[in-house]
Amino acid sequence: MTSTVNAPEGATTSPRRMLRLWEVVAISVGFMGPVMAMSLNGIGVAALVGSAVPFTFIVSFVGTMLVAYAFIRLTRSITHAGSVYALAGATLGPRAGFFGGFALLGTYLFFAACIAGACAVFFEAMMAELGLAMPTWAWMLVPVVVAVFVLLLNVRESTVTARTLLGIGFVGIAAMVVLAIVIIVRVAVGDAPVTTGVDLSVLLPGEAPVSAIMTAAVFGFLSWAGFESGTSLGEETRNPKRVVPIALLLAVVLAGAIYVLVMFAQTIGFGTDAAGVEAFANASSTLTTLASTYIGPWFAVLISVLAFLVAFASLLSSTAAASRLLFALARDGFGPSGFAQLSPKTGVPVRATVFVVVLTVVLAVVLGLFGATSVDAYYWYATIATLCMVVAYAMCSVGVIRHTFRPGSRIAKWEAIVPVAGIAFLVYVYVIQIAGQVAPYTYFPWIAGAWCVIGLAIVLAKPALADRIGSRLTSEDLD
Fold this sequence. Notes:
Elements: H1 21-32, H2 34-49, H3 53-74, H4 84-92, H5 94-129, H6 141-154, H7 158-188, H8 210-221, H9 240-270, H10 274-281, H11 286-294, H12 297-331, H13 350-369, H14 374-404, H15 417-434, H16 444-461, H17 463-473
Helix pairs in contact: 1-7, 1-9, 1-12, 2-8, 2-9, 2-10, 2-12, 3-8, 3-9, 3-14, 3-15, 4-5, 4-14, 5-6, 5-12, 5-13, 5-14, 5-16, 5-17, 6-12, 6-13, 7-9, 7-11, 7-12, 9-10, 11-12, 12-13, 14-15, 14-16
């Protein structure tokens, strides 16, 4: 797959700088898919910590901020479509950069396949809310159809993708916030099917053991997965060294505020007694269940439709991020030279985008052909992607630590404690993802590990590739 061929003479290799602050925020928030995350990710947390779900998400938010620090710090100095590829490469060297970038490419590709499965999950849920049944095999058609629309949007100018994400994301978040406020108000005035009231103790650990909270915080952390995806469009952003770091911070903080609010509302909405916690932990989709209970079946239908649209937006964002990373790698000589070409009309890496979207559909459908369900596709690929993600994020954190102690660094040395804590959190996430698992989850660390080892083998076997990467990255004005 490696190639030493540069982009053809006359090919466009410099993207257009068109994106503004909120459009970059939309890319990151779109990847995270708040409605999708809030429909599913609190269920496992409730099973572990009971009513302390909101507090657990506060812990997850702190962990995410520790990890995000490295991205926010380094993007003040580096503008590159390769995200971790460039951030680790400029601080740790080209081989480390390629290794981190290859791990991130695996993250984006496997997450795209995971989200393709999620599109099918939420489409099936939407059909169920509308009273329509689907054959069990029909979910495989959903990623195929959705991919067509993803491709049509992603090959247009990046502003089209960003504004689509911004629109869908705003409507989805607005609906969640409205539901959360209705739940809180009805519980507060006693007009609710629960009698435990507005219990503020859920914002504290309560009786949940620390070990359970930290384990559950890993599932909460997954709600922020992809927060850094906006960095992959840095070369398409106006004033990127100012805009991208602010956009990443806003994406993480905005998601954190929404997640804690919605989880607080969900927890008191189900009730904080034993029966309420059991109902929360056993719900198939918390948002649709509570929407039907507190507003009406029509709002549950609306939420199910929005959840599907948000999953679509997340697929749009993840494939956009993957195609930009693939473009960056190809531009430096890894992969077909055609992936390094940009459309002269839109400034988008069309061939890389087509490849990513097609591969996403193949990964999702192949599981279905072997009997897997849409839920299997979602969780299986999410686990593999998470394991690759931990490696990529850790490379960026190690990079900012090294840069902090370089002569002339503008970062105060005491700040190194932040990425060190971030690495510790990532190690914990990795351990939780592999400890005590049963098949097929026991296979996934091997798959993620094999992907990362392939990346390491490539860069060790191709020193010329590392030299070429290095010559480009050293041209970055790292402060």
